[in-house]
Amino acid sequence: MDTHIIELISTATHVQWSVTIPQYFFFTGVSAAAFLISSLTYVFDNKTYEPIAGLSLIVAFTVLLAAPLNLIADLAQPGRFYSLFYHLHATSPMSWGVFLLTSYPILISLEMLFVFRAGFARRAAKSTGILRSIYTLVALGNIEVTPATHERDHRVGRILGTIGIPAALAVHGYTGYILGVVRARALWHTSLMPVIFLISAMVSGVALMIWLTALMVRDKNGKIPWNILDGLGILLVWSIVGDLTLRLLWYSIGFAYSFGIFQDALPYVFKTHFTESVVLEMGLCLSFPLVVSLFGPLRRIRPLFLFTSLLAICGVWLFRWDTVIGGQEFPKISAGLAEYVPALWGQTGIMEVISNWAIWIVFFIGLTWIMPWKSEPTAESDLTSGINIESAAVTAKGAM
Amino acid sequence: MDKSRRNFMKGLGATATSLALINTTEQALASPESVQKGAVWGMVIDLRKCIGCQACTVACSIENQIPIGKFRTIVSTYEVERSGVSRRVNLPRLCNHCKTPACTQVCPTKATTKRADGIVVIDNTMCIGCGYCIQACPYEARFINPLTHTADKCTFCLHRLEAGLYPACVETCVGEARVFGNFNDPQSEVSKLVSQYPVGVLKKAMGTGPMVYYIGLDESLSSRIKGKAVISPAGTQSDEEENS
Predict the structure, then answer these.
(1) Among residues 111-170 of chain B, which lie with CB inside 8 Å of chain A?
(2) pLDDT tens string A236-257
(3) Do residues B87 and B127 touch, judged by C-beta distance below 8 A?
(4) Region A333-347: what's the mean pLDDT?
(5) A9–B144 CB contact, under 8 Å
(6) What's the pLDDT band for B232 if we cut at 50, 70, 90?
(7) Which of A92, A264, A324, A330 to mutate to probe the B interface, most B CBs <10 Å?
């Protein structure tokens, strides 16, 4: 029996979480991915990515300093954010975030102290006055760089990096968990959400590292280290394949076998928002970079490779947007769809997101300036350092 | 003022309508002490009696000083056409004060909790306005109050209950469609109604166990409405049509 319903009066569906939340999820994802890239060297002793390991660690740290500002901006009572620290609730994933967002940056800070200690020690040795005192302090009071101290720094860095891997997975995985537990939202409630978030975070993190490597890292000839970028390109391929595979599982099981409300929601993704979700996000921003990064001849068209990496970054941001905002636009009880256009200004406007990027860039420039992420080529470092860019670039293996 | 009004109503007692109201009041809410004696509060809404007058919506908004555009309760109104026959259907909505609320589970500061008497409340001095409860509520019953900047929703007019009065929406309901009472008392009106009539709840599949029951609930309205939205008094919505 055909039923036609016209909704005359009802509560309206509002998009409660603004554009700042996709930005928060994006940044935590980049942090997790960048940390994992640094761990390839600091935990798994992979020499290919050694020249960018320190840079990755700085990225992981700085984006995580900027990311929580988005959360605070989205609160209706931003002045009360501190109460999250003493009103803990074990069943609320948002409450878990308090532990993760505080312990994880502390962990990265400690790891940075050890992996950069040799660099700080060298700077202390070359400095005088207050600078020497500061460098000595961050070199943990010891300005000696010997095989023994190198071994200790490496060992402690590895331990901290090993602890940091599950922490990094958790700090972004929990954001997927925040959405996944909301069974009232058809497009959020899937156990795959934390994993989808993590894998798509790898896409954005790797793509961002491709850009930062191209901008900031040079080999001994002063050239962009394309062998590292090729390696990252292959990582990008695997990440995109994982992302698309998980999407396929999510959508296919949901469409064919899930509850009616999810089946109702899918046309919203593939029909109403076809351009954003399919054409732009999955097509232009995921599949296109996948093809370019997968095939060597295409990847070696360097401007194209860099352009598609930028598209991949945009695609992951768009996925966060489509998931967070799109998920809220699909009503829980009402007919029709909610509409959301972010304001330009204000606490939860577009300018907040742009400002957040700017804050990160300031943090990033500041820390890359302060931190000895690329060690000076000295006799000592040749002997002891694990972060000597020259030796690493020579030993770096060309990627596929 | 409320008490004097109640006394006035008690004293009035001349018409059959007011007699019926006073009788139920005295059964369920004879004294504030009854609130503390193992009561589990809930509501039964007899949709056969709802005329969609929105008196409950207005009474709630006045009683609780709800800002314009926000509602703790509202009567959703639909035009439902089946086999060429069209009819108007009213569906009063409010917080369902669920047995296992999704909102309290996700609140990061425990600002929203379920009381022993079943009423889900929000401590607006603890709420940080994160909106997680709003996302988790399957019934769109919560909103951010633009005056307090915290989450807000129906409390079954807790302040009135504690004074021995019915919720404002119940007291004002013209057709006596809204019946409020103690589900722990088998002699209460609500207990009798759910045992005598087939009742339904909204979005049963969510498993939250709503404590607001409906008599005469149209199945096609119990979950997300598959239809066309025309008017939304509380905000902007597209009028995209969907196949039912």
Answers:
(1) 111, 126-132, 134-141, 143-144, 149-151
(2) 999 999 999 999 999 998 888 8
(3) no
(4) 91
(5) no
(6) low
(7) A92
Residues in B touching A259 (Cβ below 8 Å): 205
Predicted confidence at residue A309, as pLDDT, reads 97
pLDDT digits (tens, 9 = 90+) for A262-276: 888 888 888 888 999
pLDDT of residue A11: 78
Identify all chain B residues contacting A323, using CB atoms and an 8 Å cutoff: none
Residues A347 and A288 in one domain: no
Given this model, what pLDDT does residue A376 score?
A: 55
**Is residue B232 in some structural domain?**
no
Residues 167-196 of A with CB under 8 A from B: 178, 181-185
Report how many domains make up chain A.
2
Question: Which pairing describes strands B112-114 and B120-122: parallel, antiparallel, or unpaired?
Answer: antiparallel
Of A75, A76, A182, Cβ closest to residue B135 = A182
Is B235 a domain residue?
no
Phi/psi at A20 (nearest 5 deg)?
-70, -25
Å from A25 to nearest chain B CA? Answer: 15
Average pLDDT, rounded, for chain A: 90
Q: Which residue of chain B comes nearest to A74, CA vs CA?
A: B130
Q: Answer whether A188's CB lies under 8 Å from A180's CB.
A: yes
Q: Is residue A244 within 8 angstroms of chain B, CB to CB?
A: no
Domain housing A227? 218-340
Strand partners, B151: B144
Above 60 in pLDDT, residue B15?
A: no
**B189-196 and B16-28 are packed helices; what angle lies between their axes, rounded to 10 degrees?**
100
Q: How far is CA B52 from the centre of its chain?
A: 14
How close does chain A come to B38, measured CA to CA in Å?
Answer: 26
Structure token pair of residue B162:
């504690």
- From A6, A13, A75, residue closest to B78, measured CB to CB: A6
Whose structure tokens read 């989205």? A74
B227 in a domain, yes or no? no
Would you tell me which residues 6-25 of chain A have a C-beta closer than 8 angstroms to some C-beta of chain B?
6-14, 16-17
Statement to judge: residues A335 and A348 lie in one domain: no
Number of structural domains found in chain B: 1
Q: Measured between alpha carbons, how far is B154 from B14 in angstroms, rounded to an integer?
A: 32
- Given an 8 Å threshold on Cβ–Cβ distance, is A334 in contact with B232? yes
pLDDT for A104-153, tens place per residue? 999 999 999 999 999 999 999 998 999 999 999 999 988 889 999 999 99
- Chain B contact for A95, CB < 8 A? yes
Split at pLDDT 50, 70, 90, the class of B19 is very low
Report the amino acid identity of residue A66: A
CATH number of the domain where residue B197 is located: 3.30.70.20
Q: Are A234 and A260 in a shared domain?
A: yes
pLDDT band at A396 (very low <50, low <70, confident <90, very high): very low
In this predicted structure, the answer to whether residue B10 has a pLDDT above a threshold of 90 is no
Residue window 80-99, chain B: list those with CB within 8 Å of chain A.
80-83, 93
Residue A13 CA to residue A337 CA, distance in Å, equals 8
* Same domain (yes/no): A374, A312: no
- What value of ipTM does the predicted structure carry? 0.90
Question: Given an 8 Å threshold on Cβ–Cβ distance, is B206 in contact with A77?
Answer: no
First-residue to last-residue Cα distance in chain A: 59
Joined tokens for residue B126:
């603890």
